[in-house]
Amino acid sequence: KKYLAEIELGTATDTYDGSGQVIRRGDPAGIDRKRLETSLGPFRGDIRQIPPMYSAVKHQGQPLYKLAREGLEVERKSRPVTIHRLEIIDWRPPVITIEIECSKGTYIRTLAYDLGESLGCGAFLKSLVRTCSGGFDIGDSVTMPELEEAFRCGYWEQYVHPIDTALRHHQALVVNEATEEMLKKGSPVTIDNSGSGTPLTEYCRAYSIDGRFLAVLKSVPGSSVWQPKKVLI
């Protein structure tokens, strides 16, 4: 996933964003781009984050945000995440704009809060735009008026993607007719992929001999058996 985030220095909030209550103020004066670059360094690569109280993470069956709204705060365990890329796009004191490419489960609000703590002045997430997710880029998006115009003029199909487009990161397997029939019934199938030279992954896309997308399969560890998770025929 990729994001474009604006982080405002000098104020920390209980939600880690602009909607929360101010819990601390600091003075960001004297912080320059060089210091920001140095402070961002430890946040790159494999790191651990503590989820914010205002999040959907559950504690003893209750979402943390519900507890937070009751004025409660509980201890949270840190979680491993990966920041693949973290670059400064703009610096207009006290607001820094950064571009982030990260793993699933990363809290950009926590990144903003932790950066503020590292700088000693506090910070909160001012704005956030997801620019890319699962192979879809915001640069390829269209507005609703543009889409409505495409339907009126008959060229809407150029904006419609095949259903498997969002799953291109999963391995693809072609199955024979007998296996296709088993998948239609939701039955587990055995697929020997040893001769392909491509290691088996946890999930894969199954296609018919004539190229139809049939199902999403999940491998059974330690075997050549695949269990249908979503059958599309």
Write a concise keyword list for the protein shown above:
alpha+beta, five-stranded mixed beta sheet, globular, six-stranded antiparallel beta sheet, 233 residues
Structure description:
- With 233 residues, the protein is an alpha+beta fold.
- The chain contains five helices and 15 strands.
- The chain has helices at 33-40, 64-69, 108-119, 144-153, 177-184; strands at 2-9, 11-13, 22-25, 45-49, 58-59, 62-63, 79-92, 95-102, 123-133, 136-137, 171-174, 189-190, 203-207, 213-219, 225-231.
- The strands form four sheets. It has a six-stranded antiparallel sheet with strand order 4-7-8-1-9-10. A five-stranded mixed sheet has the order 11-13-14-15-12.
- A hairpin with a 2-residue loop joins strand 9 and strand 10 (136-137).
- The longest helix is centred in the middle third of the chain and has 12 residues, at 108-119.
- The two termini are 30 Å apart.
Q: What is the element layout, followed by pairings?
A:
Elements: E1 2-9, E2 11-13, E3 22-25, H1 33-40, E4 45-49, E5 58-59, E6 62-63, H2 64-69, E7 79-92, E8 95-102, H3 108-119, E9 123-133, E10 136-137, H4 144-153, E11 171-174, H5 177-184, E12 189-190, E13 203-207, E14 213-219, E15 225-231
Parallel strand pairs: 11-13
Antiparallel strand pairs: 1-8, 1-9, 2-3, 4-7, 5-6, 7-8, 9-10, 12-15, 13-14, 14-15
Describe this structure in a few short sentences.
This protein is of the alpha+beta class and 233 residues long. It has helices at 33-40, 64-69, 108-119, 144-153, 177-184, and strands at 2-9, 11-13, 22-25, 45-49, 58-59, 62-63, 79-92, 95-102, 123-133, 136-137, 171-174, 189-190, 203-207, 213-219, 225-231.
